[in-house]
Amino acid sequence: MKDRLKAIALYSGGLDSILAIKLMQAQGIKVIGVNFKTPFFSLERNSLNHQELGIEIEIIDITNDLLKIIQNPAYGFGKNMNPCIDCHLLMYKKAKEIMHKKGALFLITGEVLGERPMSQNRNSLIVIEREAGLENRVLRPLSARLMPETLPEQKGWVRREELLDISGRSRKRQLELAKEMKIMEYPSPAGGCKLTEPGFARRLKDLFQQENFSLEEIELLKLGRHFRLEKNLKLVVGRNQKENEKLLTFVQKEDLILRARNLKGPVALLKRALLNKDNNYNFILKASQIVAHYCDKTEQEQEEVYINYFNQDKQYFYTIKVKPILERELEELRI
Question: How far apart are CA 332 and CA 164, in angstroms?
């Protein structure tokens, strides 16, 4: 019967999820991975290839569902804009659907008791699986022996004595286990969910104040320096050559591109500028002053700012000569 047993794994590509899958495979369980994709997190780069891991994987985009949650999370936020409990609950519910579709009997995760204060404490883990309708069917192989027996253990599908009792934020035991299992390729634990980062969270909160926004504008939050000029008008200024080039891929027909006429200095993207008819010139002037500030000009020197836009597939440009914005005024506009 064991050859027919299937489990769904929440697979982030991180070391904890890789180890949880390996522990189940060692007990003869067939594992199917599910990865959830959003602008805030996705499959970890440099993670062990799921084909090397010997699992099929389904990648599910939950962006629209998660955006609704972020704007009104039932269980609140962590330190920033991270609705961790609500987010995990959403993943569990989606994974439950895959369980039914694939004929799997239980869910496994790489969660470690006490590793994350909001979503991986004992009470939160119990609440999440109960609310998802998965009570007693979620197995956490890395911490299982610190928790009550689950249905897979009670039924003898999984041998409890071969599961682990890891807790807390230390990675020592996971790293030792990776070495034992000869897992050489996995991402560092740094990074993860953008919603936990103070700067990104602040920008997202600001974006929510616009009348509307696109998914592309969420991706744009990861780049450059951001300045709010008006409720629906924002300037993004590149910090280096790589970001300058990346910003150009975000240009829409209602946007303006600004940069120094001599092309020394940053690329700046003024979002929705051509939709804003009222006081348009003053906002463009202000954006040009910000660009001049990052061209290493003194407050008395002037910079020629090159303004580029598209209209009916034709490219237009003009220049404005401006002094840099004052530091105090710049900080008032910074997001």
Answer: 52
- Tell me which residue has tokens 């987010």: 87
In the chain, how many H helices and how many E strands?
A: 12, 11
Burial of 311 (0-12, 13-18, 19+ CB in 10 A): exposed
Is the pLDDT at 275 greater than 80? The verdict is no
Domain annotation for the chain: domains and CATH numbers: 2-180 (3.40.50.620), 212-333 (no CATH)
Residue 149 tokens read as: 């027996």
Look up the pTM and report it: 0.87
Give the model confidence (pLDDT) of 194-229 as tens digits.
999 999 999 999 999 998 999 999 999 999 999 999
- For the chain, how many residues are written? 335
Contacts 24+ apart (CB under 8 A), 236-242: 236/268, 236/269, 236/271, 237/266, 237/267, 237/268, 237/290, 237/291, 237/294, 238/266, 238/267, 238/268, 239/266
Amino acid at site 216: E
